[in-house]
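Notes from the 1:1 (GR / supervisor)

We went over the backlog. Supervisor wanted to see one worked example end to end before approving the batch request, so GR pasted a single chain during the call. The sequence is below; no edits were made to it. Supervisor asked that the structure be written out right there so they could see what the output format looks like.
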Amino acid sequence: MRHLIRFYSGEGKPTLFFREATGEFGTLVLSGAQDINFSERLACIGYKAPDGYHECRNGAIHTRQCPTCSALDMSRAYTKGDFSGYPQLHETARKEEYALYLAGFGEKIIKCGVTRKERFESRMREQGADFGCVIAQFTGPDAIYHAEASVQSRFLFSNSVRLSQKLRLLEFDKGVARENFIENVELVKNSGAVPDFTPDIRDFSEFYPRVRHIEETHTIIGEVLGAKGEILLFKSGLGRHFAVNMRKKVGTFF
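Structure output shown during the call:
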């Protein structure tokens, strides 16, 4: 049995990153016909540090990531701007370009977030965003997280979007979604909340499979069509379209 540590699709190929029973790591790119079952059993995935992935020190079970490993995970530096665990990363980050962005999901949900500028497109695809636009750029991470909180509060934008919401939004009116996203970008631009910018609105729909009448399931049995963020999409032998919430599968065994 392999322990699923991470699922990612931002580079265009849905991929499982796992730990073997021997402790070695491997990857599996999902394409074509697949038959994969996931266990009900959960175990802590451990944490990632600059030198790689580490196993859970506590051997924690019934959780995807225990509080200890969550606190040790270097992802906190890039998702929350908390560099306290890895101050050496802060020195590097202070020289990097960051982007404050809006991301649109379906017809109505607008998220405001932060990413390194060079990862903007990958970040949109990792999340399964339908539309995206950079609204401000900063050098270093210190000021941008304050700007993020300010824009979120002022315009009531989301800080995160649940996978359950994204699953419900796999089918939507793209025209309505586009107009709503453009209106919100213009609202921010005209408000003076961030320095003036020229909107470059990106449509990411070309990167996702076109599916209709999707049913949620918990195993992968059929032809993999691709992924929209952390939602894996496949087609059964009868031509029905299915979706698997891969975030829920992290920490399970397959």
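Supervisor's comment: The chain has seven helices and 14 strands.
Batch request approved.
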